[in-house]
């Protein structure tokens, strides 16, 4: 029908104007989408213009897809990459100079070839969902699509979960991992006998399945501990495991070590656990099909640690609150200990006097001390304790208080011209400033003509040198700090000499000695007593002799007295002001000269047959001991033994009795003699033991270490000489043999006569003989030893010296 229409149009054109004719190289063209084609339009006659028109009747203007190449009587239309919309009738129109037009047309039919558009492979789906495998294929006419799996056509009869949709896609309900594989989408156009296919790989992704072996862990902080969490994962594709904490993904570091092993195992190791590491950790597994998370909890136990404890300063009488804050996991119990007496306080405790009370909550404990006293000053220990461990810290409670005077000594004595130090001792916290006042006037630190102020920590000394009666009286010491002020008044009084001692007594009176004792005076005059002055003289004499006491002792010994003489004695006390009055005078008489008292004796055995008697002088009767008369004899019941006498000078303190007999008892009488006469005898007995055995121990007991060592070395040397001589005679060897050969060899060499040894001179060696007792023997004097060439030895006595 279309061909007939074109032919009819051509006939009409030719009939109307034979001069102008138009023709197109093709009448009808079939073109597939995407192909390119050109058409040539030829005009016969004298055309002035050739133009092309599209199926919409619009004049074709050159563009990227449509190009025009026009000459005088020829025009070419090119269509690039044809599309469906390009189908229709295209006209070529020729116009001559008179405006007459002729045209020709061509029919362009465009069809779609089998085309698979953007078919993705592989196509991925999530396990359990309804999968739609996309196969976008186009053609004109519409193609017929058939699906194949494992070389078998998919039909709904045999595959209940499979369905080919109207858009040619394949739907699979509740897809599983078993449905994974390669599917073929085959399209065909029966009218053209065209057929094509595409293979599509389908992947079924399985969401991660996550499991943990242990969901909670315990660890202790600050002990270099480590803990390892483990997650097991499965899924397709293999899930990626990440670890998270507080919403942040953990990255490998020195603290966090992440290890991935085969089989879907992932481990997170936390090193050097600290308190802040406690809490929840998340293990997350992710793949294309989804993700899954599991939480693991780490409980970190922390040793108690006291974070807040400060020194406290309180004012005496006020309240002090001491706070101790501790942390740890679990929270520790807090207790207090007072260092001064070791008393402890825990939460809820209250002391018997009600002053100490403890209240605590949530790791904080407050020790409250009401009515603070100075005895509360000192160290307090706070101890935080849990089942993990303990921690202790100490603080110091400082007490501030008003100045306190430390002494009640407020009266001082002095005299004109004698300086005195008035000491004001103060205890205070904080330290007090101190000043002196006299009759409402303040004494400056520089002092005055007769006053000076010396200050030190907690002490101020006012040095006063009284010059007149006006300088005696009241002085005021003022101590002040920021807590308060205190005053103390001192009195400077005029000193006096001491009163007289009393109750003077004499004791232990002998020929030349007497002991004076007395009682201290009732008044020392305001200043300490320096010493006591004891005066004594013979009755009738006017000259007193002075004896000073040792310090302030109330006993004085008088020496150098004359026997059988009457003396007077008196005592006075002396202080810084001067000497006081004497006591009442006492009279005593020394003893007359008499015989000495018996001496005391003690004995000690001496060396060998000697015995040593120690002599201790007793009362010598007023005159020196001239001598000791020592009489001794053996004690025997069978017969009367004669006394033996030994005179010992009185200056000696021992007597040596010797020689004595062994295994014998002796009696001794010792008498002391002075110029007046003899004392009563002192009796003493002793026993001489049996004669001791002479042993090596006794022989060497008197020798020193050097002597014993020398004797030992001498004996060893003698033994070596005897052994060498024995070797010389018996075995022809030893040091002696070497010396003999050396001497003989020298003589043979120096002779220079070349004679044999047996013809030469023998070497002689003389050795002294020893008797059994070690003494040298006189007969024979020496032994002659000849050494011959055959090394034989012959000995004979040296008769020439017999």
From TrEMBL:
- State the function annotated in the UniProt record: May play important roles in selective fasciculation and zone-to-zone projection of the primary olfactory axons.
Per UniProt, the keywords (alphabetical) are:
Cell adhesion, Cell membrane, Disulfide bond, Glycoprotein, Immunoglobulin domain, Membrane, Phosphoprotein, Repeat, Signal, Transmembrane, Transmembrane helix
The UniProt entry, under SUPFAM superfamilies, shows: Fibronectin type III, Immunoglobulin
Which CDD domains does this entry report, sorted A to Z? FN3, Ig
Q: Where in the cell is it found?
A: Cell membrane
Please state the span of the N-terminal signal peptide per the UniProt entry.
1-18
GO CC, sorted alphabetically, is:
plasma membrane
Q: Which GO terms describe its biological process?
A: cell adhesion
Organism the protein comes from: Cottoperca gobio
Question: Gene that codes for this?
Answer: ncam2
Please give the name of this protein.
Neural cell adhesion molecule 2
The record lists the lineage as:
Eukaryota, Metazoa, Chordata, Craniata, Vertebrata
Keyword Plastid: yes or no?
no
Q: Which residues form the Ig-like domain?
A: 20-107, 112-196, 208-297, 304-398, 403-493
Q: Which residues cross the membrane?
A: 699-722
Read off the Pfam families from this record: fn3, I-set, Ig_3
Membrane association type: Single-pass type I membrane protein
